[in-house]
Every structure is written in structure tokens, then in C-alpha cells.
């Protein structure tokens, strides 16, 4: 007798995939009216937030402030989305009016499916923009904008090998100490190649020993032996340590040349 063989072919996966796609298509078609209403409602809420943000921006700009780039970007994305949603709702409403049999069977199923899919995607885009509403800070002063620009210039100069001294100068109250503070804070928030970042306040009535003490606190520690040293001995100790290190010395409130 001849051998009898059998071949088993599983069709579960193709059937499941086909069923999933069919169900997905049906959902886009059947939920088109419901999703259109939801999209219109969500877009109206987004429009209300946009108006709130624009109102804040208008008030800030009347006070000579400058809107943030991220705020302008958000407003532009909302405006573009509103145009797309308006056209999509118009197309979707027209498609629903062409339904037959009073159920979920548009005369042009392919068109209805594509519209339903686009509506579902736009709903997600609206939700995303709603989660990104910039209500806390929409603008900043021109001084802050300029400060950030100067901070960037100073920071980039620190990477240049030929730069040894950077001077920040100007009349009182223009923001020299603020900028120096931002530079100091930037070192604490980013990685860098310097062994020490030292802050010392000079002031109009210069006291060199106080400056030496501020420097030594950052590179060593103040003890009785240090306190008993003369000014020249302190200078020698500081030089001995820093001559072998990469460091940044931030001197605030400088009124005249220091030796």
C-alpha cells in the first residue's frame, strides 16, 4: 500500500489579519458622523485656547516684550490645523449626506473610509496641540532676549584656545552681574573641561585678601594655617594649584585693574 501523507496549513493568522482590517475599515466608516462631531468640538476648544494665548501675547507685546519662538510655532500649527479641519468637516458632512440604506454604507466606500481615517488622525493632532498649550510663559523682555544672546557669545568664546580673558563692561544696572550669574549657573548645568569654576566679588573698595580667600575656598579649604599666611604667600599657594589646572575665574563688581 502506498504511504499516506498529510499537510496541515494554518490559516488563523491571515483570517485574523483580514478580520482586523475589515473591522478597522468598518469603524472608520461607521464612526465618521460621530468623529466629525467630536472633531468639531475639540477644534472649538483648541480655538478658545488659541484666543487665550494670542490675548496674552498681544498684552505682552504692548509692553515691549517679544513672543517666544515656541509660542509662535504653536500658534502657526493651530492655524494650519484649523484650516485643514474646516475643509475636512465640510467634506465629511457632504459624504454623510450621500449615505444609502440609512446605515453605515456610503455610496463610495473607499472615499468614506479615507475620510474617516483622516478625521481620526486629525482628532489625535488636536489632542496633541491641546496638550502643548503654552499658557505659562508666552513672551520675554527684549533685555532677556539680548541677555541670552550675549550668554551664547561668551559661552562660545570659552572654547577658543586663544581667549584668556573676557570682559563684561557697562554702566551700572545694565545686567553685568546677571549675565555673570547666568554664566556661572550654566557651568553647573552642563559638562565642561574645567577643573574649577570660581566666583569672587571684588567691589569698589578692593580687599585682595578677601578675594584670595574666596578663590581658596573653591580650590582648597580655609584653615588656621591659611589664615596666618601673608598676602604674597596666599598668592603663591593659589598660583601653585591653578597653574596645573584648567579653571574659570569669575570676578564680579570690578572697578579697576587688579594685579
From TrEMBL:
GO molecular-function terms, A-Z: ADP binding
Alphabetical GO biological process terms: defense response
Keyword Coiled coil tagged: yes
Swiss-Prot/TrEMBL keywords: Coiled coil, Plant defense
Domain NB-ARC: 151-257
Top-level taxonomic group: Eukaryota
Signal peptide: none
InterPro entries xref list: NB-ARC, P-loop_NTPase, Plant_NBS-LRR
Coiled coil: 43-91
The protein, known as: NB-ARC domain-containing protein
Species whose genome carries this gene: Vitis rotundifolia
Amino acid at each position: 500500500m502506498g504511504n499516506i501523507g498529510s499537510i496541515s496549513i494554518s490559516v488563523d493568522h491571515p483570517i485574523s489579519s483580514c478580520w482586523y482590517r475589515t473591522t478597522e475599515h468598518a469603524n472608520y466608516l461607521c464612526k465618521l458622523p460621530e468623529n466629525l462631531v467630536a472633531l468639531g468640538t475639540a477644534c472649538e476648544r483648541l480655538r478658545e485656547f488659541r484666543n487665550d494665548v494670542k490675548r496674552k501675547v498681544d498684552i505682552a507685546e504692548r509692553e515691549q516684550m517679544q513672543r517666544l519662538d515656541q509660542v509662535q510655532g504653536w500658534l502657526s500649527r493651530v492655524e494650519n490645523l484649523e484650516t485643514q479641519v474646516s475643509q475636512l468637516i465640510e467634506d465629511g458632512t457632504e459624504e454623510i449626506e450621500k449615505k444609502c440604506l440609512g446605515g453605515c454604507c456610503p455610496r463610495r466606500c473607499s472615499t468614506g473610509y479615507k475620510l474617516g481615517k483622516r478625521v481620526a488622525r486629525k482628532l489625535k493632532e488636536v489632542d496633541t496641540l491641546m496638550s502643548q498649550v503654552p499658557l505659562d510663559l508666552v513672551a520675554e523682555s527684549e533685555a532677556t532676549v539680548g541677555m541670552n544672546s550675549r550668554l551664547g557669545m561668551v559661552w562660545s568664546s570659552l572654547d577658543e584656545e586663544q581667549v584668556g580673558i573676557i570682559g563684561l563692561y557697562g554702566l551700572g544696572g545694565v545686567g553685568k552681574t546677571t549675565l555673570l550669574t547666568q554664566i556661572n549657573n550654566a557651568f553647573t548645568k552642563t559638562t565642561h573641561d574645567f577643573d574649577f569654576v570660581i566666583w569672587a566679588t571684588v567691589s569698589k573698595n578692593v580687599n585682595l585678601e578677601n578675594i584670595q580667600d574666596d578663590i581658596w575656598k573653591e580650590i582648597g579649604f580655609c584653615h588656621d594655617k591659611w589664615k596666618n599666611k601673608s598676602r604674597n604667600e596666599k598668592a603663591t599657594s593659589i598660583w601653585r594649584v591653578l597653574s596645573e589646572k584648567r579653571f574659570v575665574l569669575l570676578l564680579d563688581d570690578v572697578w579697576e585693574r587688579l594685579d
